[in-house]
């Protein structure tokens, strides 16, 4: 079965609910301020995978939830994610995402930040409407941790002295936390047992870590056209990701010096040499191994859930997360 067919089969598991989420997104994007709607639709319609809303739907189904609040919950998660993308692109001065111009490249930084704020506030309005304090508490905590993760990443830009342990904490906060919030809040909504709730938290966390580590890998091995962003973007921004951290720790003295200088300087002048170094010292294989370990931990975490099409789709999603090419 091809990767495309695997993806289609996973999404087909929650096809009707996914259509309802898309309708809810369009409804909740409404604003009397035309620029808010324009930018909101531009980034929402950019063709992303909507993996985090998918996780809400799959997790709710795996817990045999029978209500309808998982639809607005999935929309909330997508709005929180989209808000972070708008803000990230401003912080990183990015001009390309998913193969087209970023919102800040088209409309400027100020409108992008403010529409990101609108999406955050709309998400919290919708949380109030769901009316479950434990869901709101979990999402409030998640948005706080994500913000801290983004600041930690910013502090590490052009810093070659970050340890692997510290880096894993950054991506847990910055990326994995929203994956975890997606699965955790679905469990809370469904009234899952404490054991099931913990299982879904762990699944989301490990899946998020695996997803980010593969992103790190693709920054040095991917195809720009498939990824919708430029190869070497992390290096250009001076971000010390795991392939670079491994090279500095385990490569030769010359390889370590090359990478340290490239991180401090930023830009792409040394990209070819850095690519050669991370390949030669085994950094790419190491990063792939760590990603696969996380994906397997995600799969193991949900072994306690009852058999269902949703659980099987979650297992497939974890496997797909480490075999993807974009």
Quick summary of this structure?
This protein is mostly helical.
What would your notes on this structure say?
- The structure is a single chain.
- The protein has a single domain (3-319), classed as Farnesyl Diphosphate Synthase, CATH 1.10.600.
- 46% of the residues are buried.
- It has a two-stranded antiparallel sheet with strand order 1-2.
- By secondary structure, the chain is mainly α.
- Helix 5 runs antiparallel to helix 7 (109-130) and helix 9 crosses helix 10 (194-221).
- The longest helix is centred in the middle third of the chain and has 28 residues, at 194-221.
- It has helices at residues 3-12, 15-28, 34-44, 51-62, 70-91, 103-107, 109-130, 133-156, 164-190, 194-221, 224-227, 233-236, 242-250, 253-265, 271-280, 283-301, 309-321; strands at residues 96-97, 100-101.
- Helix content is 76%, strand content 1%.
- Pfam families: polyprenyl_synt.
- It comes from Parendozoicomonas haliclonae.
Helix content: over 70%
Domain count: 1
Low-confidence parts, pLDDT < 50 over ≥5 residues?
A: none
Mind telling me the CATH class? Answer: Mainly Alpha
CATH architecture classification name: Orthogonal Bundle
Global shape = globular
Name given to the CATH homologous superfamily: Farnesyl Diphosphate Synthase
Proportion of beta-strand residues: under 5%
Number of strands: 2
Cofactor: Mg(2+)
InterPro entries: Isoprenoid_synthase_dom_sf, Polyprenyl_synt, Polyprenyl_synt_CS
Catalytic activity: 5 isopentenyl diphosphate + (2E,6E)-farnesyl diphosphate = all-trans-octaprenyl diphosphate + 5 diphosphate
GO molecular function: all-trans-octaprenyl-diphosphate synthase activity; metal ion binding
